[in-house]
Amino acid sequence: MELRELEWFTTLAETEHMTEASLRLNVSQPTLSRALARLERKLGVKLFDRHHSGLRLNKYGEIFLDHALRAMSEIDKGEERIVTLVDPERGSVSLGFLHSLGGWLVPDLLNRYRKLAPSTSFELRGGACDAVIDDVRRGSVDIGFVAPEPVAEDLEWIPLGREPLCLAVPPGHVFEGREHVAIADLAHEPMLALRAGFGLRHVTDRLCREAGFSPRVEIEVTELSTLHALVAAGMGVAVVPVPRLGQATGPVIRCIPFSDPTAFRHYGVVTRRCGPSGLAARRFLKFVARGSTPPSQSGRSAVEETVGRALTAARAS
Known about the structure:
By secondary structure, the protein is α/β, with parallel strands linked by helices. 43% of the residues lie in helices and 22% in strands. Strands 3, 4, 5, 6, 9, 10 and 11 form a 7-stranded mixed beta sheet that branches. Strands 1-2 form a two-stranded antiparallel sheet.
């Protein structure tokens, strides 16, 4: 079976219209119709139900489409692997990441790596922690940037650093004048949080559980920016990462450091146990593991130094 036949079939399955498919493929309708007839003869079944308004993919067509798409995807991956073996810098790397890490960690890494390998292309996909991990496990993305460390024996985890957490409160809140708060102080506070499945929610639930209570989460959201906006509107308080220097949090809120020594989240890289399949992705992973957070003279990573300064600024504000 020719690759061209698979491409024509998938286009027909997408459009379910012979004229539209022929225009998109730049082939004549008779040629396309004969190709479909040959394919159906090979398989011994009709793949489409014919209607006066066009074609409609039937159950046999749906089964074959699933396999056709996978076959074409594998061919594309094969071509990409050959290209990256010849010239690794020309390869493509797919990354999954938490939205909160997409605001600073991912852009910084890509900016520095593109200076070393300017021909490497990247496909970026933000999402919740659980979704990113599932994408890595399925092979939908090569590398995932998540927090905290996932509990998954079939995946490899490379720690990169940690972010201290703080309590975001609205102006005029009873906690506003404090220099710090304890997690236990939140036992009776209405709280805002990311939905279950997000890394920050995992950490928030763990901290509250260790302090001996279940958080009173009254509103769940999917974006950190929405969390900040709801705090500013006086809807409740939220556990959030300490704002980074120069990072705008949107609406005016007060970020109060926690006194608890465990109020932080580890962030890092997750891959399949065997590592990424593409050479370009493997090269990028080595760059991240070796040079993403070089030690400073104080012994802490550059990222931790930056966050530490932000924490000091938060205490002083």
